[in-house]
Specification:
about 70 residues, 2 strands
């Protein structure tokens, strides 16, 4: 794994949602310096969105094919 043990933290929160079903949420945190080594830190210009989102039909087709 490209990260050291002290560079990644994760946790799980569980609870009942508005519809009465159980839900779980993961929180994953990676140290900024570890991301910079891989060129993934959000302060870098390559990590920002540079164009529009694909059209709605594209998303629907991707979900249908999944």
């Amino acid at each position: 794994m490209p990260f050291g043990r002290d560079e990644v933290r994760w946790s799980l929160a569980c609870g009942i949602g508005a519809d009465g079903h159980w839900r779980g949420w993961f929180d994953i945190r990676v140290e900024a310096d570890a991301l910079r080594r891989l060129g993934l830190h959000p302060d870098q210009p390559t990590a920002t969105v540079t164009g529009p989102s694909p059209p709605a039909w594209w998303h629907a087709a991707a979900e249908r094919d999944a």
